[in-house]
Specification:
By secondary structure, the chain is mostly helical. Among the domains are: about 40 residues; about 70 residues, no CATH class; about 100 residues, GTF2I-like repeat. It has 15 helices and four strands. α1 packs across α2 and α3 crosses α6. It is elongated, with a radius of gyration of 36 Å.
Length: about 400
Amino acid sequence: MATTRPADITYGPTMVIAAKAIMPVKRSSLKLTEEQRVEMARRNTERNDCIEDTIREVYKFAEDKAKYLSETCGKKDDYYLRLIFSGGEKLGKGRKVNAYNAWSHQLAKEKNAEADPGEASNLLELQQEYRDEYDKLTPAQKMDLCAMLMEERDSRTFGVRVNQKGRTLDVMNTFWYITAMLLSLKCRCGIEAFVGVVRNNTEYDLRPQWFFTSSTINRYLTGAIKKWDVEVIGSQMEVFSIAGCEIFTFLQTNRDRAEWMKNEIREKMNAMYSEAIGQKGLTMQYKNFEQTVAIGHGLDLVGWTHDVFANPASLPASIEPLRKLLNALDIGDCHFVQLSHAERERCRLAFQEQVDAGAVKMRKSCSDKGKKRQLYTRRNGDAHLVSTIVQQYTITVVQTLCL
């Protein structure tokens, strides 16, 4: 039997205010001759080879040091290699905006607005040339420059991508960073995780993306959870996300909406009943409310807005009464209250009067209630009956195999 453990679940905000959209930057293409292109490709190849050779030398140096530490301090080489390369991917904290950086950014943006690629002015030279203008700025102007730079940073982080290619590249690049951080966290601390990403609109094409830190996790969940299939789950989550993550938009018929609200009411009532009593996993008693809840536990329910008090599955399928009851449960208007000893006694007397009058039917008690039961003894014919059934089943199986 599977066991469950408490978990920390984090939810995103219900509403996000998008910053100014990022418009694609218009860049003029470089006009190079064939010889210049060949020379540029040669330089890039040499540079990449130099980078690879340097990285290879650094790793060889780390391996030698790890081997030396293993011989002198004990433990295996891999232990010291993990210590050397344990940094992994980390999100660097952005520097705070200051007036000088904001002014420098705005100055370079203005002076290089019309510059061709490769002909932009050097930032240090611009700062030295126009330093007098910065010294003449008032505090209000400096604050305005800082606000403009902050707005541009927010636009880069939260701004809506306006074309399909930009959105797809942004999603895949961010998803790669997430996977890299999870893998590095697995190396540093020892965790396992899986992530699923789907789009929430139809303005661009993107398949659902999943990532597991270990492939065996997906194989285990496929056998441990009934109907676990990441493709089906991703498709259903994508459809629900495109519908706006709104249940009533996703559900097509009033019957489906009513069933969903009934399930929500049932779950909330069970949770509220369990919390009021102090025992987990209890089921709310509707049919025997007076006997079990009011008299047995001394609780009373106030704020029930529906005209019918019964199990939510038996309530009419009208949307508005169910919605009103669900809202009352959400905001706390419908809740349990503790009865005093006198109120509990009055409930017991009123219930007993209804039983005596025949208005309430009580369950019949067992005829042997309070008596000690004897141990079960197998009758003589039981063994013969079981043997006969086994023989008949064996003959049927043999005849089927012969056919």
